[in-house]
Amino acid sequence: MSIANLLDPITAQGGQTRFSGLDQWMQGRTLYGGASALVAYTAATRAFPDLPPLRAAQVAFVAPTGSDIEVRREIVRQGRNVTQVRSELWCEGQCALSAFWLFGTLREANAVHPASPIEEWPGPPEDAEDAMNGKGPAFITNNFEIRRAQDVRGPGAPIVRRWARLTDRDALDPISQLILMGDVLPPGAMRVMKRQGPLSSINWSFNLLDTEPTTRDGWFLSENASQHADHGYSSERLRLWNADGHQVLDGMQSAAIFG
């Protein structure tokens, strides 16, 4: 199932929507978080096509998302510069995903502070070793190419870094591509787990540092780093850099650590 086919059923009218062939985008019993977030974002932008560029988002993964979805979206407030939109995906009579999108027009800069250069640059993706070939959940094996971006393997510091790119990205604008890729890695806390067990994203919030991100050959460096893990949860920082080491997304996530 191509990305275009994933997004084709989404209309400006919203309401009941049925998706087919979602097995290639599944993570366990639910639609992969990046894909479900992209569905909610696409629903918002198709309903309100004159929105300014996306600046930030807050996404709550409430319940499993399947193939039969009711799409809801509304403009919460539209100001002179900033428009805030809510979109929700409902499955089987309950909210499965709730997203809050912040769109903002370009304004003259009164503060300029570029993101800090990346620490421990792993080298370009072209020189990196392949990882996860034929492994991982369905959404990885069917849609992503993953390469190593750190020397550590197995237990260690609670940081997971990988080069990642979509194998089919022609139908996506740059922002949609970042939304689809932003949640691609497992929580960094997996490296300090005492025993193997399932992990699950609960929410995801992010700021876009570049509203027109570019990269080389589709590659982005993705990092999930646990800031604190205990009592079955991990507070994670999620970041994306382009192939030249320029940060394009900065985010946070709460992850459930089971087992």
Describe the 3D structure.
There is one protein chain. This protein has 259 residues and is mainly β. Helix content is 13%, strand content 40%. The chain contains four helices and 15 strands. The chain has helices at residues 3-7, 33-47, 138-143, 174-181; strands at 15-18, 26-27, 30-31, 54-61, 68-78, 82-91, 94-104, 130-131, 144-148, 159-166, 199-201, 203-208, 220-230, 233-242, 247-257. The strands form two sheets. Strands 1, 4, 5, 6, 7, 8, 9, 10, 11, 12, 13, 14 and 15 form a 13-stranded antiparallel sheet that branches. Helix 2 runs antiparallel to helix 4. The longest helix is centred in the N-terminal third of the chain and has 15 residues, at 33-47. It starts with a helix and ends with a strand.
The best one-word shape is globular
What proportion of the residues form beta strands (DSSP E)?
Answer: 35-45%
SSE sequence, one letter per element = HEEEHEEEEEHEEHEEEEE
Give the N-to-C terminal Cα separation: 32 Å
Give the number of helices.
4
If you compute it from the alpha carbons, what radius of gyration comes out, rounded to the nearest whole angstrom? 18 Å
Low-confidence stretches: none
- Main β-sheet, in a few words? 13 strands, antiparallel
Average pLDDT across residues? 94
Structural category is mainly beta
Percentage of residues in helical conformation: 10-25%
List keywords for this structure.
259 residues; mainly beta; 13-stranded antiparallel β-sheet; two-stranded antiparallel sheet
Q: Brief description of this entry?
A:
The protein is mainly β and 259 residues long. It has helices at residues 3-7, 33-47, 138-143, 174-181; strands at 15-18, 26-27, 30-31, 54-61, 68-78, 82-91, 94-104, 130-131, 144-148, 159-166, 199-201, 203-208, 220-230, 233-242, 247-257. Helices cover 13% and strands 40% of the residues.
